[in-house]
Automatic annotation (TrEMBL):
Record key words, sorted: NADP, Oxidoreductase
Highest taxon above the source species: Eukaryota
SUPFAM superfamilies with a match to the protein in the record: NAD(P)-binding Rossmann-fold domains
GO terms of molecular function: oxidoreductase activity
Classification of source organism: Eukaryota, Fungi, Fungi incertae sedis, Mucoromycota, Glomeromycotina
Statement: the UniProt record of this protein carries the keyword NADP: yes
Family: Belongs to the short-chain dehydrogenases/reductases (SDR) family.
Protein name: 16447_t:CDS:1
Annotated PANTHER family: CARBONYL REDUCTASE 1-RELATED (PTHR43963), CHAIN DEHYDROGENASE FAMILY PROTEIN, PUTATIVE (AFU_ORTHOLOGUE AFUA_3G15350)-RELATED (PTHR43963:SF6)
InterPro entries from the UniProt entry: NAD(P)-bd_dom_sf
Length: 152
């Protein structure tokens, strides 16, 4: 069975164009396919074709990942969504928490740790009820971690 090549061409061109635009930030590209064998084969072929200096593992700015996804299969969509959410949660919440925990012992009394991030984590995309949970004045670290575990 052969991949049709449309998605492959889109991912390849996106990776090449992004890498050639002198980006400051890495870009993760998710290649999706119904057939895991074909999808992984495409990723492997792209990894060979895009060497050197384009992929993150070669010092570049593009990270390629394969995700099994069949848009006609509700279970496949649910699984893909869970994988993406877990990946972003690991980076955007737990990654930040791990950095905080590593730096905290080094901070002098009355010192501060300041984290700067993009607008991607803004609360306005959440329901009003969930916004209120995040904005509670008495929300401590334990409560925040418990709240975030609901998204795992």
């Amino acid at each position: 069975m052969q991949n049709k090549g449309i998605g492959y061409a889109v991912v390849r061109n996106l990776a090449l164009n992004y890498a050639n635009s002198s980006p400051s930030q890495p870009l993760t590209i998710l290649l999706t396919a119904r057939n895991p064998t074909l999808g992984q084969s495409s990723i492997d072929k792209l990894r060979e074709e895009l060497k050197p200096n384009i992929l993150v593992e070669d010092g570049g700015k593009v990270d390629l990942k394969f995700l099994r996804l069949d848009i006609a299969d509700e279970q496949s969509i649910k699984e893909a969504k869970e994988i993406i959410e877990k990946d972003y949660l690991a980076t955007n919440f737990y990654g930040t928490l791990n950095v905080f925990n590593a730096l905290y012992p080094l901070v002098r009394p009355n010192g501060r740790i300041i984290n700067v991030s993009s607008k991607a984590g803004k609360l306005s995309v959440l329901s009003s009820a969930l916004q209120q949970e995040f904005l509670k004045e008495d929300l401590d670290m334990e409560g925040l971690i418990k709240l975030m575990k609901r998204f795992e």
